Amino acid sequence: MKTVSVLVLSLALACAQPLAEEQNIRERRDIIHERKVGDGTVFGKLGVPETGGAQGMVGYKGNLMDNNYGRVDGQAHLTRTLGLPGGPQTGAGGRLDWTGSRGGASVDVMHTRGLGTQLDAQARGTIHQFDRNTKIEGYGGYSQQFGGPGGRQRPNYGFGATFRRRFR
Q1: I need a surface site. Which of 27, 52, 115, 116 has the fewest CB within 10 A?
Q2: Closest by alpha carbon to 105, among 138, 57, 60, 79?
């Protein structure tokens, strides 16, 4: 009888342990608000970044151009992060996205006071279309940190190509 009691008690504790751990796991959620203003959108966001603390962002995004050559969308934003060990951080940034019929490109710049400026650029597109099911696509990226505690960093870049064939 003692063996059965110990076995039942051990089984109950083993089943209860994962339930207690699951209750402590919370999904990270951001509060986002957007409102149409003119031809664009004003947005605000409150959340918890991966680095910790609490971050607020406010900005404006909209379409800058849309014609036969493609579409250009732009965004500008300000951020404020609180609760970090080094004190609060303030940043300003912007982004441009171009999308055309054969590819696209984006440039993203973010300056954080005391940490410098981060520049990121990506491009992708069709290099050659053999037929409607076969093509070669190319892509590339570049990023670099300017200023901040580490000074100007070496650039990080990469390029590549993909052969794509759809079988029907």
Answers
A1: 27
A2: 138
pLDDT band at 19 (very low <50, low <70, confident <90, very high): very low
- The stretch 8-34 carries a mean pLDDT of 58
Structure tokens at 100: 């055309």
Q: Tokens for 21, please give them.
A: 């751990």
Domain ranges of the chain: 102-168
78-90 residue pLDDT tens: 999 998 887 888 9
Q: Compute CA distances 151 → 51, 86, 87, 117, 146, whole Å.
A: 21, 18, 20, 10, 6
pTM score, whole prediction: 0.72
Beta-carbon contacts of 113 under 8 Å, excluding residues fewer than 6 positions away, are: 89, 90, 91
With 50 as the cut, is the pLDDT of residue 153 above it? yes
Q: Supply 96's token pair.
A: 């441009």
